[in-house]
Amino acid sequence: MKAAILGIGTELLTGLVRDYNAYFLAQKLVGKGILPQFILFVPDQIEKIVDALQFLLREEEVKLVIVSGGLGPTEDDLTREAIAQALGKNLVLDSEAWNRIQFFYRKLRNIEPPENNKRQAFIPQGAEILYNERGTAPGFKLQVGEKNIFVIPGVPREAEFFWSVIEKNLPQEEEYFYRSPVFKFCGIGESNLAEEIKPFLSHLPSSFNLAFLPNYGEVWLYVYSSHFSLEEKEAALSFLNEVASHLDKYFFTPYGDTLEEAVEKMMREKGLKLALAESCTGGLVANRITDIEGSSQVFERGYVVYSNEAKKEDLGIPEGILKEKGAVSRETAYFLACGVRRRGKVDLGLGITGIAGPGGGSEEKPVGLVYIGLSSEEGVRVQEFHFSGDRLMNKRFASQSALVMVFQYLKEKFSYEFSYH
Prior knowledge:
globular
């Protein structure tokens, strides 16, 4: 089965709002073995919505259409009218839907619903109403020939709820489309990863495609196919596992979906504690680590030492180093890592200093220059990085590189001792 997602909203086309629903629905559909053949966005204009829907109805391979957005109570919410027009149907009031809207306002907001909310209770004649447990706008379902059309609200949390309704109505078919789990690597670039994989490519069945996805200092790898046998699927997964085994020192997926999750899990398993001294990243590494539930078992403390005074007072960075070498230097990163490890009485201390930009750079020390130090019982290692993004990207890349350093240290020190192996 192939599907289509139709997002409705002028705000999506003008860049005012970033779409989430298509991303969410595509992931869910692929997880069910259904390939989204089209993802379309149209403005809040009846003729554009009608044109898009009629286009999708003409596509023979598309058997499932999910329409998201335009079900609100205001004059620019035109999805109901457009779908009725496209299918040659009248809009009819669903009294139960209107009762639910009234209940929502009277019981939860203690007011009467505005009159325009009644628009949300109208659906095309012959449609099946789908009640909304997270808002006032109901969705509805239509059968047009062999095609199932689901129309759901555009509010992301409401669209997420309606996926559970759509999922129950999907036909039970053999898997048509398959995308493998995503294998994530850090500390290696896309080109180098591709070179390392070459000796294994003959093991990937010809019915499968290989895909690379660079993502902020990581490379994600997966395979996909629309025509495959069970044996070919198993061979494709075996290929990925071969690659992961060969590149084990870069492969972090078994430990966490994100790099910070992987680092936190590995440190927790080994009973290690981490402390951070951040300058140019402004606490971003600490934020990423503490986003993880239970990270207090690993993260002991963090300092944002932006000024030279803070570096001296909080972590004891020698004034001579700051004067002679500068705040952005290999030596300062060294002392930041040592100082925070000593102050925190922890196993690992990370020190980060750099120039995020757009100002502050020079010919000798350009914007994007970052030094990261990692202090452990084995000693201190300092790495120099050069990033070429804007301020926020440079901060993100610096935080990523810091986590990569910790990940690589843990892999080197403990090798195959982790529970994954």
